[in-house]
Structure formats: C-alpha cells, structure tokens
Automatic annotation (TrEMBL):
Keyword flag Cell inner membrane: no
Protein species of origin: Roseinatronobacter monicus
Summary of the function given for this chain in its UniProt record: One of several proteins that assist in the late maturation steps of the functional core of the 30S ribosomal subunit. Helps release RbfA from mature subunits. May play a role in the assembly of ribosomal proteins into the subunit. Circularly permuted GTPase that catalyzes slow GTP hydrolysis, GTPase activity is stimulated by the 30S ribosomal subunit.
This protein's name: Small ribosomal subunit biogenesis GTPase RsgA
Cofactor: Zn(2+)
Amino acid sequence: MFSLAALGWSGFFDAQLTATDADFAPMRIATVHRSRMTAVAQHGTVRLQLPAQANTADFAVGDWVLVEPETQMLVRRLERKALLRRRTEGGRMPQLIAANVDTLFITTSCNDDLNPARLERYLALANEAGTTPVIVLTKADQVAETAPYLAQVAGLQRGLDVLALNAKAPEAAQILARWCGEGQTVALVGSSGVGKSSLLNTLAGKSAEDGQMTGSIRESDAKGRHTTTSRSLHPIIGGGWVIDTPGMRTLHVSDSLAGLDHLFAEITELAPLCRFRDCTHAHEPGCAVQAAIKDGTLDPARVDRWRKLVEENRSNTPVQTGPRGNRTTVHPGKRR
Ligand SMILES: Nc1nc2c(ncn2[C@@H]2O[C@H](COP(=O)(O)OP(=O)(O)OP(=O)(O)O)[C@@H](O)[C@H]2O)c(=O)[nH]1
Ligand SMILES: [Zn+2]
C-alpha cells in the first residue's frame, strides 16, 4: 500500500482535480509499451485499459493519470510538473523520456566515458525539463583518486551537485538519499555501460539477477552488447521512485534555449554588456565575452561548446510561426 504522497502526489496535481473527478483514482504510469501501459496505484500495479483513441506515445513513465477504478479505464492525464523529452534523428515529434521527475541523475563514470561536452547536453535537457540535475560519477572504486574527475565536472553549471560513488555498493543509496525521500522521483540517464542498471538495483534494493528479471528488458544491440531498452518506475528502498532510461548513444539538443541559457549562465550574462546588441561574440569590438576570455575569467573551450550547442539547438528546433500568434509547429529540416 502506498499513500498518494508516497507516490509523488502533491498540491500541484491536487489543484487540477474537479468535483467530477472524485470517482476516479489517481495513478502513476509505470511502463509504456506500444499498445499497453501499466500504472502504480495505491494498492499496487495495474494494467490500464486504454480508450480507442489513446496513443501511448503521448504518455511518459512518471505521468499522473486518472483511472476509472472498476474498469481500470484511463480517463485523462494530469498536467506535468516536469517533462524530459528529446528529438531523435528524423523524429517528427519529441520522444518523451520521463515525466514529473524531481532530480535527474546524469550518470557517467570515472574513466574515458567522462566527457564534459556530452554532460552539457544532458544538463540542457534537465534544465529545459524543469528537473534538477545532479552529476553522478560511478566506478569511483576503480580509480585511486576521484578528485581529478570531480574537477572536470564541477564548473559545468552554477550550483551543480556532483558526486562520485561505486554504483554496486549499498553506500551509494546513502550518498543519493538527499534526493530520494518519500514522494521524490529521480531518473537515471547516461551512456550505455556507465552503471545505470547497477545504480538502479542498488537504489531499489534488488540483486543483479532480480533486477534484470523484474526490471528492464535487456536485449542485444547491433554490437551484441546487452543494453537496457525499456524504461519503468521502480520504488527506492528508503522512499521515492527511480526511472531508468535506455542508454543514449547521441543526444541532440533541441527545443532547449532556456535550458542552454541556464547552463551557460556565466556566458549569457555577459551578452548585455557587449557594445552591440546583436553581438555574435566572435570578432566585434567591445565584446564582453571576448574580453572575459582575454582576461582569463572565461574558458574559451567552454565558449566554443556553448556556440556549438546554441547553433545545434537552432537548427533542430522547429520555428514557431503562424497568423495572429497561432503556434504552428514546423518540423525541422534535414540536419546539416
Ligand atoms: N566496479 C564498479 N563496476 C561498476 C560500477 N557501475 C557499473 N559497474 C559495472 O559496469 C558494467 C556496466 O554496468 P551497467 O549497470 O550494466 O551499465 P548501464 O549503464 O545500465 O548500461 P546499459 O544497460 O547498457 O545502459 C557492469 O559490469 C557493472 O557491474 C561501479 O560503480 N563500480
Ligand atoms: Zn559579444
């Protein structure tokens, strides 16, 4: 038995209920497949009945829905507090990754997987979603010192929490406990092999074998490696919920202007100080960004990465146009 608060219910969702909703049970989407979905209810997990017109692609793990209790028929989805989504190459609509996630554990390991430019992509994703990012460096037990790895990620975003742990050790759950209290939802993202499944098993208190059986479906990818292919909602031992996501090979940045501004705040805050309002910060006289690079307060490599992501975001984000402010989505053209 779970209380609604333990499931992550809050005033934000309560405020969306009307008098006629009293007959329905709030439930949280636990898995989304092509033609079926399951949800966690106060009494356990149920398979939802879907109305004929429902499209499971419109739902994300972590979503709150109202359900008709006798028939388990889905009635409607509640507005989301946060939504992680991305566009895949050639994808017309953004793919939903997870909803109502409080904290995104951006996972990488203390080895060659650690790549600040890739982490910045995940940070933009988290910022744009309205989810707090935390960088989790796994495989801390495999290196003599974690300090050099922590140093590489510490400056990636103001106020960013960064920590190193062994994903397979039970202490990992204590290190992450501040983000995992009752009703809190966290999600794991990162490249294949960094230890997301290991961390999930540690947080959910499962042995590796149980974890594989009851958790994610693992199948071989093109290279014969076993990778996580589904996502689902799992209870954390000390309270809260964890959503695992499939390993992402490449994360293209799109629809994330605000997320990028927040990520690169130390750069975007300088722009108003440039002499020209439309300064490109490349060659203009009186450019505050170039001045900061020159006096050593701004890392030129960081500025290059910022420029590249802003450009990528522009070319991948549909232009919102239309008569009298109607928002018409124009799908992005071929990537250059
Ligand atoms: N020593 C050590 N090994 C780890 C740690 N985290 C993961 N591993 C090992 O690294 C390998 C990959 O870990 P997984 O948890 O399967 O990685 P994943 O991110 O879930 O990978 P995908 O399912 O492909 O997305 C496994 O052999 C783990 O046992 C860690 O913190 N320390
Ligand atoms: Zn400038």
